[in-house]
Amino acid sequence: MAVQKDLDAHYTVMDKIFRLSLGEKGAYSCARFDGDYSLSLEDAQTKKYQFIVDGCNIKKGTKVLDIGCGWGAFLDYLNKLGADTYGVVLAKGQADACIKNGLNVKHMDSKEITPETFGKFDVVTAMGSPEHLCSQEEYLEGKQDEIYKKYFKQVSDLLPVGGRFYCQAMVFGPNMVKYEDIPFNQTDVRKKEFTNAELMDIICRKFPGSWLPYGKEGLIEPAKEHFKVISIDSGRLDYIETIKRWTDAFVKFNIRKTMFFLSFIPKYLLSSSFREWIRLFKVDANLIIFEREVFEHYRIVFEKIKD
Q: Whole-prediction pTM value?
């Protein structure tokens, strides 16, 4: 699991910008357009939530745990349906925002959850959080398979036989580069064009501490001892559209957001590392890496098959 400082580097430092752009309970995971790009981002997020509700048989009274719940958009949706919701998140900025907004969320490392923590659940969901399970160091030590097997065993322990787990995650796609070819911390982000290896360097600097599974197999294989796949589909094109919509939202004028940006001026002038961090976010690495199929994205509904 990525350490606290790695997640806080992105999710807590950028917390206020995201909430000013996407709303207090803004959804920061891939929406579901299914090719209908006339949908608003909010409607596409709602479509995703309804897909999960239908796929996992969630109804009034269903006890649901959302691992890595972000700012609580899905929990809020489920609360309106009358579900019994619980959320956990590691980034403190997100946890504080959820609690402030009245959501049942605990600031904790999800790997510490056991059946004794909250009891068992009817449904578990994870949108994006599985991407943070394995660090680069753990990958290099050959621990990735072990980490994901342990994760699916942990989720299985929280569910009855027949209980469902919705897992949504980025994975490395068919055009992923070799680890040894990535020029870590060497890419000049002021360039106009980047190789796939250079884009991976930028991604690792923007989202430190994580190393993705390889393909959908990187999620399905470690799960198969405890789960069968009910449905699976690629969300790569939806992620591309979602990123574009997020970018539009982030740059849209808002007086409070503008004042917040202006507050960074002294730090920008005095800190070279902060200037470099800002430059990283000016590169559309997240978008390009999906367009080039270096990254893929899968949405999987699992069902527990045995204790």
A: 0.91
